[in-house]
Specification:
Elements: E1 8-11, H1 18-34, E2 40-44, E3 49-52, E4 68-70, E5 77-80, E6 84-90, H2 100-116, E7 122-125, E8 128-134, E9 140-151, E10 154-162, E11 182-183, H3 195-217
Parallel strand pairs: 1-2, 3-4, 9-11
Antiparallel strand pairs: 2-6, 3-5, 6-10, 7-8, 8-9, 9-10
Length: 219
């Protein structure tokens, strides 16, 4: 199984418009399939935008104050914007076990472990997509979103973690179709974390993400 050193790691210094990122991902997906490009992990932020997954319901778009874009990934509506760090993961599952569920679980574990490094206890819930934690008042809330697409065994999209976004921007949608729980961020929990520090934390724990695929594949 290819190691982390064989994957291109890209960090965007400036916000990348969502349509531009989506076109770049689609082109890279095709190139990876053809063997013409390396796998890619891409960390970035977007200008404010609402994106619609393949299961998005019209009634969950409450206030389209920002552009709404069809993302092509699984899931429903989500928000991206400044202060939210997005990590796109384009890897070739033909070389990593051909198991989409395992891939998603490995992504979840990657985020949970990285957040634990900052003292944030978080978890996944089978019937609720995403990464969850408790707000200061004890209520459960989402701190990270996950949405993927797999085309010919090459993955696209990935996950987004709320470092310090404007949480009021999430009120324009029903995030991921779940309206009984709120959305939180590291800043809301009293943790001031620079995007660069989060990027480095994920990069440091990326080998464990790949190992999770390899270990499970060997069972």
């Amino acid at each position: 199984m290819p190691g982390i050193e064989q994957i291109e790691w890209r960090v965007a210094a400036q916000p990348v418009p969502y349509r531009e990122a989506l076109a770049a991902m689609e082109a890279r997906n095709v190139a990876i399939q053809a063997g013409d490009a390396r796998e890619l992990i891409w960390q970035l932020e977007h200008p404010p935008v609402y994106t619609a997954g393949t299961s998005a319901a019209a009634g969950e778009l409450l206030d389209p104050r920002f552009e709404v874009i069809e993302a092509g990934r699984g899931g429903r509506y989500t928000y991206h914007g400044p202060g939210q760090r997005v990590t796109y993961v384009l890897i070739n599952l033909r070389e990593r076990g051909k198991d989409v569920r395992r891939f998603v679980h490995a992504l979840e574990g990657w985020v949970v472990d990285a957040l634990a490094g900052y003292g944030v206890e978080c978890w996944t819930v089978p019937e609720r997509v995403g990464i969850w934690t408790n707000e200061p008042d004890g209520r459960e809330a989402k701190i990270g979103a996950i949405g993927v697409r797999v085309r010919r065994w090459v993955t696209m999209h990935g996950f987004a973690v709320n470092l310090a976004p404007d949480l009021s921007h999430f009120t324009g949608i029903v995030p991921c179709g779940i309206d009984e729980f709120g959305v939180t961020s590291l800043a809301d929990l009293g943790i001031d974390l620079a995007p660069e520090a989060w990027d480095e934390a994920l990069r440091a724990s990326a080998p464990a993400f790949l190992d999770a695929l390899q270990i499970q594949d060997a069972r």
